Amino acid sequence: MPRGILRVLVTLVLLLVPLSTQATDTAPDTSLTPLKFLIGEWKGADAEGKAHKIAFALSSGGTTLTETLTPPDSPPMTTMYYSDGDQLMLTHYCSLNNQPRMRAAAIKEGDKAITFAFVDATNLKNPTDVHMRQLTIDVKDHDHFTQTWTLSKAGKDVPKIFTFERVK
Fold first, then answer.
1. Which of 16, 23, 38, 146 would be a feasible disulfide site paired with 138, CB 3.0-4.6 Å?
2. Domain limits, the chain
3. Choices 3.90.1310.10, 2.70.50.60, 2.130.10.130, 2.40.128.20: CATH for 33-166
């Protein structure tokens, strides 16, 4: 085999070995465990009774949970749940054209509610601009949950409540 080809093959092997060992050396991410029951499709309504759909799926090799909320009268919005060390975080890609990041309070086994509080946001020109500043997910059972999004509008908190039931 010519030396040039051999050199290329050895270089490729050396580049690929760290990738294969890296995937097996990492511990499984358990920070998403409290939310994994949400995987699937849900139907629900807001406080005014308007129908909403929501779907959850694992993504990025199981390191994020992707939520797609589809309201009846505006484009779908995406929220990504992920870990930051031992803490659970989210980034909400809002139809208001900003992206709030929130961090969950410590979650203990058996907790029925998870509350995420505002950390910061991209594309938010002023702190008084309209944005989501909190999310509470209240688990009723394996097939029912409520989301309470808190909208900050002119410095006042406005709760937006959604109830969901698993689509079977």
1. 146
2. 33-166
3. 2.40.128.20
pLDDT (tens digit, 9 = 90+) per residue, 20-69?
444 445 555 678 989 999 999 999 999 999 999 999 999 999 999 999 99
Tokens representing 100? Answer: 């709030």
φ and ψ at residue 56, rounded to 5 degrees: -125, 140
DSSP 28: P
User: Which residues, other chains included, contact 67 with Cβ-Cβ below 8 Å and sequence gap of 6+?
Assistant: 38, 54, 55, 56, 78, 79, 80, 81
Q: Of the candidates 151, 122, 155, which has an alpha carbon nearest to the alpha carbon of residue 134?
A: 151
Q: What is the CA radius of gyration of the chain?
A: 21
Residues 118, 22: Cα–Cα separation, whole Å: 33
Nearest C-alpha neighbor of 57 from the set 74, 41, 44:
41
For residue 140, give both structure tokens. 């009723």
For 49, the 3-state DSSP assignment is coil
Could you report the per-residue pLDDT of 2-17, keeping only the tens digit for each? 665 445 434 434 444 4
Nearest by Cα to 52 from 146, 140, 137: 146
